[in-house]
């Protein structure tokens, strides 16, 4: 019920602001990984749009791979159980890995990925997330690069889904609670 879109109670960030955040983090990654060739591990499906922005704004040599995990199954709350749907194709042993997430909410997905990548012998594991919902964290976890901090509200758009739709929207918005209550 914004003036323009009844699906959302508030628009948080549009694609221009998101691109600006990607430029800022891309420049940090260029500095932090100078002389290295990290692998961006894009967490499907939510991180797809943000990963494109971030990837385009990194200038050093960098690889990209994909992993598909899920725990929300389209709903508004985590099932607290992570399902690995499609694995990486790269060997991460002795590699510098940057996990690319759209959002860290409970932190369970990130904890799962960090432990998976460490078990496989990654040399370093850091995370670049578009959104961090600090008040949603259920585990003690920290993302290294954060686009925006957000409040404890259910958001969608720009890769994030509500029941698998709205990932295509060019902004992040707070979903109107009337939609799911
Ligand atoms: C969402 C989101 C993150 C994760 C964050 O993925 O894209 O990957 O949950 O939540 P958490 O911190 O509480 O674990 P989801 O399971 O909805 O799959 P999707 O990316 O395919 O939508
Ligand atoms: Mn996801
Ligand atoms: Mg989802």
TrEMBL record:
Gene3D superfamilies: 3.40.50.2020
Catalysed reactions listed for this entry: IMP + diphosphate = hypoxanthine + 5-phospho-alpha-D-ribose 1-diphosphate; GMP + diphosphate = guanine + 5-phospho-alpha-D-ribose 1-diphosphate
NCBIfam families per record: HGPRTase
Pathways per UniProt: Purine metabolism; IMP biosynthesis via salvage pathway; IMP from hypoxanthine: step 1/1; Purine metabolism; GMP biosynthesis via salvage pathway; GMP from guanine: step 1/1
EC number per UniProt: 2.4.2.8
Subcellular location: Cytoplasm
GO cellular component, one term: cytosol
Family label: Belongs to the purine/pyrimidine phosphoribosyltransferase family.
InterPro entries: HGPRT, Hxn_phspho_trans, PRTase-like, PRTase_dom
Residue ranges occupied by any Phosphoribosyltransferase domain in the UniProt entry: 11-163
Cofactors that this protein relies on: Mg(2+)
Biological function: Purine salvage pathway enzyme that catalyzes the transfer of the ribosyl-5-phosphate group from 5-phospho-alpha-D-ribose 1-diphosphate (PRPP) to the N9 position of the 6-oxopurines hypoxanthine and guanine to form the corresponding ribonucleotides IMP (inosine 5'-monophosphate) and GMP (guanosine 5'-monophosphate), with the release of PPi.
UniProt keywords, alphabetically: Cytoplasm, Glycosyltransferase, Magnesium, Metal-binding, Nucleotide-binding, Purine salvage, Transferase
Record-linked CDD domains: PRTases_typeI
Enzyme class: transferase
The keyword Nucleotide-binding belongs to this UniProt entry's keyword annotation: yes
UniProt name for this protein: Hypoxanthine phosphoribosyltransferase
Keyword flag 4Fe-4S: no
GO MF terms held by the record: guanine phosphoribosyltransferase activity; hypoxanthine phosphoribosyltransferase activity; magnesium ion binding; nucleotide binding
Gene: hprT2
Listed GO biological process terms: GMP salvage; guanine salvage; hypoxanthine metabolic process; IMP salvage; purine ribonucleoside salvage
